[in-house]
Amino acid sequence: MLLAVLVPAAVLADPPLIHSERSLYRQVFVYGDSYTRCLCFTRECKIGRQSCIDLKQPSRLMFEYTQMMLGSLLLDPDPRSILIIGLGGGTLPRTLGRLLPDADIDVVEIDPAVVSVAAQYFNYQPGAHQHVYEEDGRAYVRRMLRTDKRYQLIMLDAYDNQYIPEHLLTQEFLTQVRSLLAPNGIVAANTFSSSRLYQNESVTYRAVFGVFYNLKSANRVILASNAPLPSVAQATRNAGHFDAAFTALGFKSISILSLFSTEVDWDPKARVLTDQYSPANLLNSRD
Amino acid sequence: MYRACLYLIAGWSGFFVMGIELLGGRLLAPYFGSSIYVWGAIITVFMLALSLGYLAGGRASLAAPSLKRLALILITGAAATVPVLLFGDVLLERLSAQVPDPRFGSLLAAALLFLLPTGISGMVSPYAVRLLVADRASAGHHAGKLYFVSTFGSAAGTLATSFYLVLYLEVNQILLLMLAVSVAVAVIAWLLPAVAES
Q1: Fold of A64-281
Q2: Run of H or E including B91
Q3: What gap in Å lies between CA A71 and CA A97, rounded to an integer?
Q4: Region B148-168: what's the mean pLDDT?
Q5: Fold adopted by B2-191
Q6: Testing the interface with B: which of A136, A177, A281 to mutate, by most B Cβ within 10 A?
């Protein structure tokens, strides 16, 4: 009895604070004990964990959403050029760099403090094929559109529950992201599973990409393409390439595959978010 | 009535300036992002514009000041935001290609779009003080009340725009709405019988 009461409390308590620094945008906190280490943007870490690593098994993906983001590899198993908007603790570029050693990976992170914390506390070292740009994600996308650079996979991981950069969640921005894709390119976005924003976000992605795969559990990941979406059968075949690799990361490709859904479970009449109408944070605070 | 109208103009002008400032951040974000530099550029331009506007407004109040002329200043300030509505996107598109740096690009963009309307709006307060003040003894009292109304209007404009207006209206619709209110306030002031200016 006593144990049953004590154990959840011990699990729920924040581990000790290791490091904190004030950045241009926020306070960055690093919590951890001898087992895990987490990056947080709030003092109460439980609600604002951005990224965590398992110190005993550093390659294990502790967050389901990062596993779901890798679902994009089931649609295109071998993207040669990847853009990730939002660095966090560097879990996505680190994992992708290991899975696809020849892929060129560009990461855009607005906050220089996050870049240095990822290096110092989460051991994120950009590999030979990786570049980190300290820049606003939208400004970067616009800048790249003026060049010949195109990406086969673009990952949007710049939103958190505390604050959404509203200019990164509009029809115009997603259209620019779509234009920055190479032919048959894939977009993976870590987004919102609850609140009124779910409706608006869904219709906005739909307006830009048409049908997309909606992966939902506690988190929500959208997988979309600028070409007709590869079938689930195709994704299942591609999953075969990653069975061993995903198992080493701590999850089964079949558990991600089972989440692939194209069902419209939102209000199709919700208002599309645009540069003119983008109250994403206000909508996210409403049920 | 005459005094109430002066306070109305000053309060509305404060609301208008802060509404535009917040929307300015929205307008620039698609082109320069929403980094701290972009907000820094916008706030710099607004403060600079207001400071110049105060200077110009005080100067203008030296020659035959009247409520009608104040109404004209209000309307001119509103009219100066029309180019933002008409050419804002084209200008921002060109400018962000020419000067992609988030600091100087956004500073230049904010200056081109907002220096004039905000500067003209800044003329309102000192000009209204001149119309309010009857004698030296009460000058500080009137100026204090006017600052109160004007800055209170700014607070209201900030809150209304960021908490509510953006949830229901598009950026350009909010701009148009604020233009319409400026015109309405100016018309009220214009139609007010020319009271003997105390």
Answers
A1: Rossmann fold (3.40.50)
A2: helix B82-98
A3: 15
A4: 96
A5: Growth Hormone; Chain: A; (1.20.1250)
A6: A136
CA dist B9 and B183 (Å) reads: 11
Residues B112, B83: contact at Cβ < 8 Å? Answer: no
Question: Please, is B151 exposed, middle or buried when counting C-beta atoms within 10 Å of its C-beta (0-12, 13-18, 19+)?
Answer: middle
Q: Which of A168, A159, A97, A165 is nearest to A129 (CA)?
A: A97
Q: Which residue has the tokens 């110009």?
A: B56
**How far is the C-alpha of A242 from the C-alpha of A263, rounded, in Å?**
26
* A67 residue type, one letter: Q
Instruction: State the pairing for strand pair A17-22/A27-32.
Output: antiparallel
Query: ipTM of the predicted structure?
Result: 0.86
pLDDT band at residue A60, thresholds of 50, 70 and 90?
A: confident
What is the number of residues in chain A?
Answer: 287
Task: Note whether B26 contacts A: Cβ–Cβ < 8 A.
Answer: yes
Q: Do A132 and A87 contact (CB within 8 A), yes or no?
A: yes
Three-point CA angle A96, A97, A100, nearest 5°: 75
* Distance between B68 CA and the closest CA of chain A, angstroms: 35
Q: What does the pLDDT look like over A105-164, one tens digit per residue?
A: 999 999 999 999 999 999 999 988 999 999 999 999 999 999 999 999 999 999 877 778
Eight-class DSSP state of A46: G
- Reduced to 3 states, what is the DSSP secondary structure of residue A134? strand
Residue A185 in 3-state DSSP? strand
What letter does residue A1 receive in the DSSP assignment? -
DSSP assignment letter at A45: G
d(CA A277, CA A169): 10
pLDDT-derived band at A3 (thresholds 50, 70, 90) equals very low
Q: How far is CA A277 from CA A121, A148, A161, A266, in A?
A: 38, 30, 20, 19
With CA atoms as reference, report the closest residue to B6 among B119, B138, B142.
B142
Q: Which tokens in the block code for residue A192?
A: 């919102």
**Half-sphere exposure of residue A152: CA atoms within 13 angstroms, side-chain side:** 13
Q: Tokens for B135, please give them.
A: 């004698």
- Which residues from B are below 8 Å from A170, CB to CB? 30
Minimal Cα distance from A274: which residue of B? B170
> Are residues A19 and A3 in contact, defined by beta-carbon separation less than 8 angstroms?
no
pLDDT at A9: 43
Catalytic residue of the set A157, A160, A243, A275:
A157
Residue B167 pLDDT grade (very low, low, confident, very high; cuts 50, 70, 90): very high
